[in-house]
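Inputs:
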Amino acid sequence: MDRRQFFTCSTSGMALLFITGATAVGALVRFLYPGVYDEPPQRLKIGYPGDFAFGPTFLAEEKIYVFRDDTKGFSAASAVCPHLGCTVQYVGNDRQFSCPCHGSVFDATGKALYGPASRPLEWLEVTLAKDGQLQVDGGRKVPDSYSLRVQASS
Amino acid sequence: MIKEIYRSVFRGDPVSTDKGKTELVFYNLWLHIHPAKVRKEHLKLHHTWYLGFIAFYLLVILCVTGVALMFYYHPHTTVAYKDMKDLTYVVFLGQFLRNMHRWAAHGMIIVVFLHLCRVFFTASYKTPRQFNWVIGVFLFLLTMGLSFTGYLLPWDQLAYWAITVGTNIASYVPIVGSEVRLLLLGGHIIGDQALLRFYVLHVLLLPGLLIALTMVHLWRVHKDGGLSRPLWKLDGGADATREIAMPAGQEKTYGLMQIITGKPIFEMLTPAEEADTVFSYPYAFYREGVAFLLTMASVMAISLFWNAPLEALANPAKTPNPAKAPWYFLGLQEVVSYSAIIGGVIVPALLVMALLAIPYIDRNPSRRLKDRRLIITAFTLLVIANIVLIIIGTYFRGEGWSWVWPWMDRAGGGH
């Protein structure tokens, strides 16, 4: 084997080794992504408009605050703190959200007032389902000015 | 007959002879990580404080109690908490074994950290042990990782919210953060997939990695001349400030590597130094046995009097107030309460990189404290800052992470 052959063989060998290794690592990482997520759907029916009292209603399971206003209608805010995922609490007297984990405070529109959270709370799209129930879509973010006007029975 | 069986198991000469003491070490799989003879200085408590041994013994306790707990634990959200209750109230010795596992885990973090500090202050990371320091830093990180992954398994409020905060911190890592969180949790929420993944990491992958690296760590200590010792005190003089390989005496048998390369890759003993050594059996083994017994007794005593915490069943709808990370992460959580990216990503990344780089950026050949004032001061300040932040996070933070005085009534508490 002369020098040219040696370099050709060794370079090819190393390239093959690298490609095999990279493919194996890539396949392993891909394997770790579940094919199906066994998680609750993001679009949820939360009840009929008449079921909600005026003011805020906290849906604990869904981590959503639903607000009913007699002029604006219905709006929904995610109760998940954008800082590190704790559940914020709405303090009605102050019209503010506060996070128990690191003390972030948000105003009624979800804007971060102080604390470590740099992003506002997320507002979620509220629509009316065919059966007349309110429907919140956790995957569809809307501006804080968004609301759904509904002719409610009560 | 009995003697024949004994001789088939212990094949060396009787340990009453020097040859037997040597063979006891060389012919034994478990003991041959030791040298046949150790320096008297290695046996003394001061300098090493046996912290490496204690960390290893705590690892043994954790492995044994962890395997015992696995007999009763299912990594599924519907039964994990019930299993913890069963262990606490139904299973014979269940609470005690769980206590031992939890307190040994906390103890291991403390001891590994103290070991790291000891190695730093005695400058034992210098030539030829630079890379062993790097392995040690990874062992420290693995210890933290094991403790963190174990935190979720009881599936109580403490577990759920500590992991919520911890994995959200991971998502702040630029570019790959959210993908790392997704892979870690096996989904977008902390549920069955997350519990299963943390379980596999906790009982298989991380311990396997930890044990493998521990073996390399111990092997390199052995090859680098045994335990660290205060050379500047023993030998005096400027030449003794570094741990250097010494040429062997003419009458000694050379190591194979020395025959091949002409250079000893590990420390050789001069005849004068040889006189300052004793056989590992019984001197070193007895001391290690005492250290193990004291470690075991301490963990058992603590486990008898203090139960490992178990809070209410994990409730994703209700965040405890305050929600605190495990105590060893409270320093970072304190910084995170000002900025997630700084406390959760930048500070830890810089700290780890600085720790890994220490042996390569510290070019000062001296191991004396008085010659290393700058680096000693910097390291000490970092350690003190971390301890102060942990104390603040543990005792001075109340509802909504507001400042409280520990002697005043407050809701919630540290973990």
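The mean pLDDT of chain A is 89. Flag for discussion at group meeting.
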